[in-house]
């Protein structure tokens, strides 16, 4: 949909990539990603990217 600032619609695409020496290390480095995305989608705005230790302590809810 066009807006006051844009004459026609556009799409922005990004790819998030984690590289590590092993799959286990990559999974650990990527573990905070879900919590970070949740902060954006919840409307509170992007939080600083948590550490893997902080992500491990995060308590997920059914919501």
Polypeptide structure, described:
The chain has 63 residues and is mainly α. It has one domain (1-63). It contains three helices and no strands. The protein has helices at residues 23-30, 33-41, 52-57. The longest helix has 9 residues, at 33-41. It is flat, with a radius of gyration of 16 Å. The model has no long low-confidence stretch (mean pLDDT 90).
Labels describing this entry:
flat; mainly alpha; 37% helix; 63 residues; 3 helices
Number of domains: 1
Q: What is the share of helical residues? A: 25-40%
- What order do the SSEs take from the amino end to the carboxyl end, as H and E? HHH
Low-confidence stretches: none
Biggest sheet record:
none
Distance between the termini: 31 Å
Supply the helix-strand structural class: mainly alpha
Provide the β-strand percentage band: under 5%
Please give the radius of gyration in angstroms: 16 Å
Put simply, the count of helices is: 3
Shape descriptor reads flat
Strand elements, count: 0
* Average pLDDT metric: 90
Short description:
The two termini are 31 Å apart. 37% of the residues lie in helices and 0% in strands.
Chain-wise SSE layout:
Layout: H1 23-30, H2 33-41, H3 52-57
């Amino acid at each position: 949909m066009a807006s006051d600032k844009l004459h026609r619609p556009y799409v922005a695409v990004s790819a998030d990539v984690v590289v590590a020496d092993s799959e286990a290390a990559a999974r650990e480095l990527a573990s905070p990603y879900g919590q970070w995305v949740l902060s954006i989608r919840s409307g509170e705005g992007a939080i600083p990217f948590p550490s893997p230790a902080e992500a491990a302590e995060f308590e997920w809810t059914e919501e």
